[in-house]
Amino acid sequence: MRHAGEQVRKSVERFEKGVRMRTQGTAAVFSIVMILGFGLDGVAQQALRPASLADQSSMASCAQFMAPKKNVNGKMVGQENCLMQDHGLVDPERKYHRVDMGITGTLSGWIVKEGARSNHFTSAPDFVFTQMGNHRPRFHGILRYEAEKGTSLILFYPESGWNGKFYVMVHGVGGSFLSGSMSSWDQNFNSSSSFNATKIETAMLEKGYAVARTRRNADRDRPGDYEAVLDNGEVWPGQNINQNPELILDMARLVRNFLKDRSGREATRIYWYGHSAGAHMGFLVNFMPEVNLEPNGKHTVDGILADDPGGGFYVPILMKNGQDVLFRTPEEKAKFVKTFSIAHQLYPNFYSVDQPWQMELATVPSYVSPSYLENKRTAARVFREKNMMSGFRMYEIKGISHNSGDTSPESGRGDVPTLPMVELSRFIDGVVDLLDNWVEKGTEPPGMRSESPGLGDQREAVNLPETACPLGVYFAYPPSQGAGSAGSTAFAPFDGVSLEPVDGRMELVDMNENGKRDKRERVTEAWRRLGLLKPDETLSRAKYVACVQNAVATLRKDNFITEKVGNLYIQEAGTEELPAR
């Protein structure tokens, strides 16, 4: 075998020599904020057995719940060990239970030895490498991942009122044991914040779901934590496990077995929520449907909620001998699980020539764009052309960059105020219900929403009250964060006094769209320009509330938001501070 230390050194050199590392806010951890207080909507409820006091917070084996291994070229591949700490009730009022699990095992996949994504060990090379412009030879091997290096999950479940379903939560790029941004699986618990569920996770719990927050070594820009043993015996280090849906699917199977033990009943549905890389890895579940099948032919994951797929990937095209062979038969399409793609319209990012380790622009396929948003639209267009609308929808959302305004890193930092940022989580909450009704009852969701010509069923993006009744302008690149903040969202109010801002790149935010920098409009002037007020009208509290009521009614018509969320918007409109009128 080739000496691993020398390969690590070379791997580090490949990624770091001459590379200008930039943090672009591309969802290192996707901690999305969500509102509280949703009922179970009449779904069947189950009780889960609490752990005994002797079990709580002590380390124990969970190997009995592991997913079965699979034979790959004569080698058994899959989960090898599972350890858990049962922390018991971490929200006694609502009886939410927490269990941390660390998982060690092996994966089958491919590497490339240089070029774009050469730190990616993946089971989907025809998408991960090809669509990034890397057409170099691929080498198959086996990679062993480790709980001690952070590969793990945190499970929250309601001890009473479980609806028999759970979400597996899949984060975006980021996380490295080598660089210190990941810890061993048993170092994630903090007794002072034991119930640290995000608000979107809390909303799912309030609806009766369990949620399994997965963690994987997924650094995009540096060598990864693991080495792959290639089929010829060569050891190739510096690999991450960012693009292996089998890892997450086996975690979901483990959680299913655990919940069955606690409840005495099988989970009836498993859903996938992914943000950024976690979203486009969800696409791979559909592009390689065999990985999502159980021995009885049923799906493991029954539906996918892909929140702003990273880079807009992956486009549903697979070229073989000059022909696109993906989703060409009824049998293939029947294996496709229902999927929502949520595109953040305000995210302006694109791949550039000075980041060749991400994408090699000169050799990408013709259907791939450097523009993230364009790739999201292309993917949706191809799904439509392939008659996949029985299982796919894409919704563009106005006013939000990659990291939505209600994620914890986005709030309370000068030009990134806590409010009135667009709260995407309120929309996601409604989509959770849309997905479940689509899967369970066959209830068709609304048609696609996009401002791209010929794509949306209506040529418009989803307009939440914050953008339908604007008190200012949302823009990417907050000035305080600089040119590397494409994924963050800032807000400039219509105050009638200040100059229009420049963003973190020192480019004008043209709030009134007149092509020059001038004083910001008062909110009344802006609303007259936008047609929300007549020329002789002035914004008042009553008119603002009426606008929000109309926006809520439009969203409620399509069930994009729940009744409870709609009432919350209207209540807030009655008390929210308005800018100078």
How would you characterize the overall build of this protein?
This protein has 581 residues and is an alpha/beta fold. It has a single domain (4-465), classed as Rossmann fold (3-Layer(aba) Sandwich), CATH 3.40.50.1820. It is 23% helix and 21% strand. It has helices at residues 4-16, 125-128, 199-206, 245-263, 277-287, 330-334, 372-385, 424-441, 465-468, 523-530, 541-557, 563-573, and strands spanning 59-61, 70-72, 75-77, 79-91, 96-111, 120-122, 139-145, 152-158, 165-170, 210-215, 226-230, 235-243, 269-275, 303-307, 319-320, 323-324, 338-344, 392-397, 472-476, 489-493. The strands form 4 sheets. Strands 1, 4, 5, 6, 7, 8, 9, 10, 11, 12, 13, 14, 17 and 18 form a 14-stranded mixed β-sheet that branches. The longest helix is centred in the middle third of the chain and has 19 residues, at 245-263. It starts with a helix and ends in an 8-residue tail after the last helix. 51% of the residues are buried.
Largest sheet report? 14 strands, mixed
Radius of gyration: 24 Å
Helical proportion, percent range: 10-25%
- Look at the structure and give the mean pLDDT: 88
Structural class: alpha/beta
Q: Can you say what the CATH homologous superfamily is?
A: Alpha/Beta hydrolase fold, catalytic domain
What is the class in the CATH system? Alpha Beta
Dominant shape: globular
Uncertain stretches? 1-44, 405-414
Number of continuous helical runs = 12
CATH fold annotation: Rossmann fold
Q: Report the CATH architecture.
A: 3-Layer(aba) Sandwich
Number of spatially distinct domains: 1
Write down how many β-strands occur, each being a DSSP E stretch of 2 or more residues: 20
How far apart the termini lie comes to 72 Å
Strand content: 15-25%
